[in-house]
């Protein structure tokens, strides 16, 4: 039985047994190569789920939709390792109770998907450790990061200026991100207005810096923002660079487990401080 | 016998238009995105793009624009208006859906009160549309009762020739005729075979949808919740929509000097309608999606007798969660059959 | 002839140490350049990266953030949190091309009037050499310009 | 240029400048400003166009604009009075502005109360809390031509005694024999010396039981009060066509372009803010 069929069956069982009230997974999209979120409430709906290489979205963001988990009932959700990391972070930041989440985990490599053992976020600890040890999400991506780092500051500034100039402040990057759950984003606060809401280059620059900063040590590199961006800003490169930073400086790999302390809300007395005069 | 504009004469056309004081704008691919941008040479144009990522709206109603600056002193406030620069523009190679969209927004921006920023640019721009010979799976102009060669909003319509050597010229307005009189000498009179237009299948039944939307019973239908569950509330569909016209004012500066700007805003954002008191008339994403669909296909046509959609399909093409007008109207069509 | 470039530097400082250090520099009659604009805050832990962005937005050529030495925080560990925050924010600024010579961090205690005066002098000199932050200023200038479209 | 459709302005988004000539505290957080036009041409436009019921966008450069009604009546158009509760960025700036400071004003926008249609009729005004200002504009418009109307009844309620606005005018109305004024505060909101009624507006209205015969009701208040008061008015025999109310939504442009005040097919800024209850009942309730 293919992974897809196994998981359809599993989802159907979860729903028909009443263990979960809802399963969030992937259904077919508007074109053959697109998958879109599918919310299954009955065992019949579960037959529409897809599990394949085209399932790229990190669906965990839907878990924090207002009121979805407030009835204490369980929800099943299809997640890739990044998604499981997001759930861990959301749990660590008290946004959800991980016991309410039944995970249908899968992973994709070179176009083939395979299932992951476990149903609770805590079942994947060894997977997380392995991910941290072999942090090789994409060498192509790291190469691009390295290329930018090799530039002079002026060149880097010009590079990002050209990218951010395209931004239209649609906030798709924020809205699609499971970590951006704030009811009112800093950019929407107007007393005081810290950063410009206008989408001129300066405002875009500020917005993207603030976004990247707020995701530092929290981003799980699912790539959702990058795929969502309608003007193709390579947001994953910034997120990648920041993930490298927290790993190198504080040995922090986001979303390891549900008790992990947020990197910017904790400290060690011997944290590096070579740059401080 | 019809007028023909040959592709290899395009550079000369641009030279003549530039000499006559026109800026020339057209589809350009740059920095991983395609959009309508000012060009100096015909070679910069990419006329093979089915539809630029960004819309024609950008040229009339930019994402952010300064309206005026202020300087406050004890006894007076000085302001300086920033009106669009008075430059004649020719948009060469617009798509019919984009051009139509401009005509759709005209009544809105001119409804009793004239939006200076919109109309100044509208009056200074000639839109030369090239009929589409190719479409992708998201194109839906025909579903909106428009077509790859719609003339709505265009000043000139160019029909690609079958042999790809150029275009057959259809002059639609005086403004278009005036602009093309500058290149009259470069046009040829010859019989021409135009290429077949793009085949854009009809995706939904607009009349049925309108009827369904007009029925007050359907306003509270569970359908809206189901269809918008995936919606993440970003502004992609509205900002990449050529007809979406909602905006915001923002003051930037300090207590004494600064600038008031007009920025795009989106009905998808929760804050769009939020009162200062915290009350929000459209407090859920489903209410906001319903508003978007209702506004485009019920309220707007009720007021201005035009659908606030020209069928470009960008909302669906670019949606991060694969939603969009096509799916919603297809579902409504199914519901009303 | 145009006036020589005088950098504008915004300093966000903790009131318990660096601000007192600056006081000490003043009462000790130590000389340091007048290019610094100090903003006094209760703790370095209060200094949000937003402040740095705001300073740049308002045309600063350099920013200094300064507080108590580790272990000396009036609120026991505000500066430890700040240290992590700056490590991360600094990396972000660096990656987006904001020269790190313009964004400086220091620990200056209430007793270090001399260190304060020397730091301000060397910082001002460094930024004077770098010149105005033209790349950022060009972006600011663009926001103040009339429409071109 | 004096193009009437453009409010006399070439750029419809550019406000007129007004000076604060008086400032009054009405209730905790609620202030009234009296404003005078700095430019005579702006004033002339205002006088020509302003009719009771219209609103304006008041602002401070650097903070933005905020929408409130014109609280002064069309019969007193030498100035504009606006009353607002300090709650956001713009109102905070307006509240801290001093007499002599300059503010911005755009308007008057929107539709009006058809006061001529009220001639010869009895009038019932019902307002709750900070919603007295729009009602007050109609009240004074009618009181300034008192002989054209029949009996005038005003029912006004607020959460607490302190929250009642225009206290000096309430006193004046109280002492007039040609007005019946019914004041009430919510239970628990009364002060030891409170002499008037205690209870929510809808039930007090039912107790006062004004006759619906030949009567026009003007109703302004928070949405929840409107909802229940409409039920009470129905019980008293009022026809929805004879009940007027004002709707408020967030607005930016005020001229039917920016899209945010749109409810159903109506742009509140252009086709409102004054509606009959019958018109309101035809709007989609879910978006109100």
Task: Give structural notes.
The complex is a heterotetramer of chains A (277), B (337), C (149) and D (288). Helices cover 37% and strands 12% of the residues of chain A. Chain A is an alpha/beta fold. A five-stranded mixed β-sheet of chain A has the order 2-1-3-4-5. In chain A, helix 3 (81-92) links the parallel strand 3 (74-79) and strand 4 (101-109). The model of chain A has no long low-confidence stretch (mean pLDDT 93). Chain B is built from ten helices and twelve strands. Chain B has helices spanning 10-19, 96-110, 116-123, 174-181, 206-214, 223-227, 236-239, 285-304, 314-318, 325-336, and strands at 2-6, 22-30, 33-39, 64-72, 77-81, 88-94, 125-130, 156-160, 166-171, 188-190, 247-253, 257-264. By secondary structure, chain B is of the alpha+beta class. Chain B has an eight-stranded mixed β-sheet with strand order 3-2-6-7-8-9-1-10. With 149 residues, chain C is α/β, with parallel strands linked by helices. Chain C has one domain (9-144): Rossmann fold (3-Layer(aba) Sandwich). Chain C is globular, with a radius of gyration of 16 Å. The model of chain C has no long low-confidence stretch (mean pLDDT 93). Chain D has 288 residues and is α/β, with parallel strands linked by helices. Helix content of chain D is 24%, strand content 30%. In chain D, the strands form three sheets. Chain D has a seven-stranded mixed β-sheet with strand order 10-9-8-7-11-12-15, sandwiched between helices. Chain D has a six-stranded antiparallel β-sheet with strand order 4-3-6-1-2-5. In chain D, helix 4 (167-175) links the parallel strand 8 and strand 9. In chain D, helix 5 (201-208) packs parallel to helix 6. The longest helix of chain D has 13 residues, at 223-235. The mean pLDDT of chain D is 91. Chains in contact: A-B, A-C, B-C, B-D. The interface between B and D is large, with 53 and 42 residues. Chain C: This is Heterodisulfide reductase subunit MvhD. Chain C: It holds the Pfam family FlpD. Chain C: Residues 9-131 form the F420-non-reducing hydrogenase iron-sulfur subunit D domain. Chain C: One of its GO terms (molecular function) is oxidoreductase activity. Chain C: Keywords: Iron, Iron-sulfur, Metal-binding, Oxidoreductase.
Summed up:
Chain A is α/β, with parallel strands linked by helices and 277 residues long.
Give structural attributes.
heterotetramer, C: 149 residues, alpha/beta, Rossmann fold, four-stranded parallel beta sheet, 5 helices, D: 288 residues, Elongation Factor Tu (Ef-tu), domain 3, 2 domains, seven-stranded mixed beta sheet, 8 helices, 15 strands, globular, iron-sulfur cluster binding (chain C)
């Amino acid at each position: 039985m293919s992974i897809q069929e196994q998981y359809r069956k599993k989802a159907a069982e979860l729903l028909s047994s009443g263990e979960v009230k809802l399963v969030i997974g992937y259904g077919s999209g508007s074109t053959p190569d697109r998958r879109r979120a599918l919310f299954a409430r009955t065992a019949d709906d579960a037959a529409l789920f897809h599990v394949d290489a085209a399932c790229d979205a990190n669906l965990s963001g839907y878990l924090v939709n207002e009121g979805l988990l407030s009835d204490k009932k369980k929800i099943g959700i299809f997640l890739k390792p990044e998604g499981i990391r997001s759930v861990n972070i959301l749990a660590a930041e008290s946004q959800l109770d991980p016991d309410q989440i039944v995970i249908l985990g899968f992973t994709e490599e070179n176009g083939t998907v395979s299932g992951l053992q476990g149903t609770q976020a805590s079942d994947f600890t060894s997977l997380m450790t392995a991910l941290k040890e072999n942090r090789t999400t994409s060498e192509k991506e790291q190469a691009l990061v390295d290329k930018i780092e090799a530039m002079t500051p002026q060149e880097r500034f010009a590079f990002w200026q050209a990218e951010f100039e395209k931004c239209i402040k649609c906030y798709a990057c924020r809205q699609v991100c499971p970590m951006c759950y704030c009811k009112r984003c800093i950019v929407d606060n107007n007393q005081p207005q810290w950063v410009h809401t206008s989408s001129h280059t300066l405002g875009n620059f500020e917005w993207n810096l603030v976004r990247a900063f707020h995701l530092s040590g929290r981003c799980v590199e699912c790539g959702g923002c990058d795929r969502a961006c309608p003007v193709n800003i390579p947001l994953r490169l910034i997120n990648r660079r920041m993930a490298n930073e927290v790993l190198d400086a504080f040995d922090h790999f986001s979303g390891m487990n549900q008790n992990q302390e947020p990197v910017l809300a904790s400290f060690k007395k011997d944290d590096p401080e070579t740059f401080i005069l | 016998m019809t007028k023909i504009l040959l592709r290899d004469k395009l550079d000369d056309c641009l030279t003549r238009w530039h000499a006559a004081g026109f800026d020339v704008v057209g589809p350009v691919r740059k920095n991983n995105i395609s959009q309508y941008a000012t060009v100096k040479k015909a070679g910069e144009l990419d006329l093979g793009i089915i539809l630029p990522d960004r819309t024609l709206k950008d040229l009339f109603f930019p994402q952010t624009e300064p309206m005026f600056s202020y300087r406050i002193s004890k006894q007076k406030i000085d302001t300086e208006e920033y009106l669009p620069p008075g430059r004649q523009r020719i948009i060469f190679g617009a798509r019919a859906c984009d051009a139509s969209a401009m005509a759709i927004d005209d009544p809105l921006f001119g409804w009793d009160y004239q939006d200076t920023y919109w109309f100044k640019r509208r009056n200074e721009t000639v839109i030369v549309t090239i009929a589409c010979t190719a479409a992708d799976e998201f194109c839906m102009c025909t579903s909106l009762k428009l077509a790859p060669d719609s003339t709505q909003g265009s000043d000139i319509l160019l029909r690609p020739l079958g042999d790809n050597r150029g275009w057959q010229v259809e002059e639609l307005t005086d403004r278009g005729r005036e602009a093309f009189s500058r290149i009259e000498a470069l046009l040829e009179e010859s019989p021409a075979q135009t290429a077949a237009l793009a085949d854009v299948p009809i995706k939904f039944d607009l009349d049925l949808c309108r009827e369904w939307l007009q029925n007050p019973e359907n306003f509270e239908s569970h359908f809206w919740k189901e269809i918008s569950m995936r919606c993440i509330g970003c502004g992609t569909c509205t900002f990449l929509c050529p007809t979406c016209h909602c905006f915001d004012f923002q003051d930037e500066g300090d207590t004494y000097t600064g600038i008031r700007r007009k920025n795009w805003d989106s009905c998808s954002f929760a804050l769009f309608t939020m009162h200062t008191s915290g009350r929000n008339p459209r407090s859920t994403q489903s209410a906001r999606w319903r508003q978007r669909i209702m506004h485009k296909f019920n309220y707007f046509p009720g007021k201005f007798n035009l659908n606030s959609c020209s069928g470009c399909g960008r909302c669906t093409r670019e949606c991060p969660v694969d939603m969009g007008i096509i799916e919603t109207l297809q579902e409504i069509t199914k519901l009303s059959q | 002839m145009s006036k020589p470039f005088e950098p504008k530097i915004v300093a966000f400082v903790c009131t318990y140490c660096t601000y007192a250090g600056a006081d000490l520099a003043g009462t000790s009659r130590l000389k340091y350049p007048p290019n610094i604009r100090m903003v006094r805050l209760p703790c370095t832990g209060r200094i949000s990266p937003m402040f740095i962005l705001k300073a740049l937005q308002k045309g600063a050529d350099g920013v200094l953030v300064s507080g108590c030495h580790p272990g000396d925080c009036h609120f026991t560990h505000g500066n430890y949190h700040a240290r992590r925050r700056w490590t991360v924010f600094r990396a972000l600024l660096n990656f987006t091309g904001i020269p790190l010579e313009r964004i400086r961090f220091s620990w200056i205690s209430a007793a270090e009037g001399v260190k304060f005066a020397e730091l301000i002098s060397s910082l001002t000199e460094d930024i004077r050499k770098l010149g105005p932050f033209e790349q950022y200023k060009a972006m600011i200038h663009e926001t103040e310009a009339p429409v071109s479209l | 240029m004096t193009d009437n459709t453009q409010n006399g302005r070439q750029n419809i988004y550019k406000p007129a400048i007004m000076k604060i000539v008086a400032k009054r505290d009405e209730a905790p957080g609620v202030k009234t400003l009296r404003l005078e036009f700095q430019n005579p041409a702006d004033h002339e436009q205002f006088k020509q166009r302003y009719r009771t019921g219209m609103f304006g966008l008041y602002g401070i450069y650097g903070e933005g604009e905020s929408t409130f009604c014109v609280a002064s009546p069309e019969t007193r158009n030498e100035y504009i009075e606006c009353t607002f509760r300090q709650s956001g960025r713009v109102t905070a700036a307006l509240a801290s502005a001093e007499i002599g400071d300059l503010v911005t004003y755009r308007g008057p926008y929107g539709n009006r109360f058809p006061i001529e249609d009220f001639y010869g009729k009895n009038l019932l005004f019902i307002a709750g809390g900070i919603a007295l200002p729009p009602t007050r504009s109609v009240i004074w418009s009618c009181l300034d031509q008192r002989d054209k109307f029949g009996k005038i009844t005003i029912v006004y309620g607020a959460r607490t005694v302190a929250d009642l606005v225009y206290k000096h005018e309430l006193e004046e109305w109280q002492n007039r024999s040609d007005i019946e004024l019914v004041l009430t505060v919510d239970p628990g909101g009364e002060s030891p010396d409170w002499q008037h009624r205690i209870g929510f507006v809808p039930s007090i209205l039912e107790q006062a039981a004004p006759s619906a015969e030949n009567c026009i009701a003007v109703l302004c208040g928070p949405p929840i009060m409107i909802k229940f008061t409409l039920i009470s008015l129905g019980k008293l025999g009022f026809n929805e066509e004879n009940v007027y109310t004002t709707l408020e939504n967030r607005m930016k442009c005020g001229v039917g372009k920016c899209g945010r005040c749109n409810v159903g097919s109506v742009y509140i800024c252009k086709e409102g803010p004054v509606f009959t209850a019958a018109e309101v009942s035809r709007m989609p309730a879910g978006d109100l």
